[in-house]
Amino acid sequence: MIEVKQLVKRFGLKTILRGVDFSVEPGEFVALLGPNGSGKTTFLRILASLSRPSMGSVKVAGYSLPNESAQVRAKLGVVSHMPLLYPDLTAEENLQFYARMYGIPNYQARITEVLEMVGLENRRKDLVRTFSRGMQQRLAIGRAVIHDPEVMLFDEPYTGLDQDASEMLDDVLRTVAAKGRTVVMTSHDLARAEDLATRFDILSRGVIAASARQKDLQKTNLLAFYKQSINGNQ
Amino acid sequence: MSSTSPRPTFFKATMAIVQKDLVAELRSRELLSAMLVFSMLVILIFNFALELDIKVRQSVTAGVLWTTFAFAGTLGLNRSMAVEKDRGCMDGLLLAPVDRAAIFFGKAISNLAFMLIVEAIVLPLYALLYNEVRIFQPAFLGVVFLGSIGYIAVGTLLSAMSVQTRTRDVLLPILLFPVAIPVLLASVKASSGLLNNATFAEILTPLNLLIVYDVIFIAVAFMVFDFVVEE
Prior knowledge:
The complex is a heterodimer. In chain A, β1 and β2 (14-24) form a beta hairpin. Chain A is an alpha/beta fold. Chain A has helices at residues 40-47, 69-74, 91-101, 107-117, 133-145, 163-178, 190-196, 222-232, and strands at 2-11, 14-24, 29-33, 55-60, 63-65, 76-79, 151-155, 182-186, 199-204, 207-213. Chain A has a single domain, classed as Rossmann fold (3-Layer(aba) Sandwich), CATH 3.40.50. By secondary structure, chain B is mostly helical. Chain B starts with 9 loop residues before the first helix and ends with a helix.
């Protein structure tokens, strides 16, 4: 579903990604872990066609980036720590806007379905600026799945959420992943990543330093694997 | 999951952005109120600063009006793009499976609508304060419309660039005014000619320039917007 070969990204003289090789099978939930500044967000932005690769090849859902970026975007849902929502529109109006931007026919039924999924159907007529951070993040997930994408990218979705909101987000993420979608999530919350993901990739100093499946980590926990991978790459 | 993903048409995506901007502005009134208050202040300051001599006032009408529109327009352009950038909504727009030129046209049309609303309020106020009713002649209003199109076309493109920087409020006018000078000069010349009862032949040159610059700015923005917004 996602295939990245020898990806390099430079900003001026600074090289952020130094030849990343990465692939994800359909239906996999990959947690992309790594310290601050390791290039996780840059990598996700390239997968989302928001940033151009300097070198290397990137394929998402069978389409190449950047040449077939519109086709990739049609298959992609993205959630970041920013909600990507308009505060002066209601929850329903925000979803209507994005439904129109994705060309969804007869979107009203889909909007109701999505609002029920994220537990905001009774707040559909309320302005987004009146929502708590947790509610905004749930609506952000609703926005990202409005067009029923095959691939979901989550960039630190737990940032700024309290414990209750994080638990609600866990449930929504499980629902999203249970539909057979391919998911790539970056996070600093190892416990949550361990609970949700089926594979863990460690991005350190611009390369994938290590990768392990959840079933292979039963004896050694994720924190130990993470520390070992980071230290081994220094 | 859907096997074939739906895609919006260029026109529908453009109109979705226009409608979203208008509804949001109708609720918040942040952008229009800032533009209007600023425009009225400028008109009032010029009113007190200029001599009461009617001939002097008539000779500066075009200049005063276009100075007001240009500065108020910059305020609006900055605010319009800042709304998209501050909460990451620009990424939301860029993630839509649509030709990115549709985003440019959507933002440009809503920016133009805001500027025309401000002009529709400022012109009667100017007429009242300066006792200048000739600004309501259709040809003059046509020049205002053409000038606004060119200014907004280049302004929307440059605001998409400047909004990526920390100094966006300062950077936009610095980038915009030098580039928009041809449009502003042609607009002032054509407006001034109309108010001074110039013949059609006399205002034909600035009018042609205005139309040509409008077409060039729209075409350039259409071609380069994708590169401007991508990292």
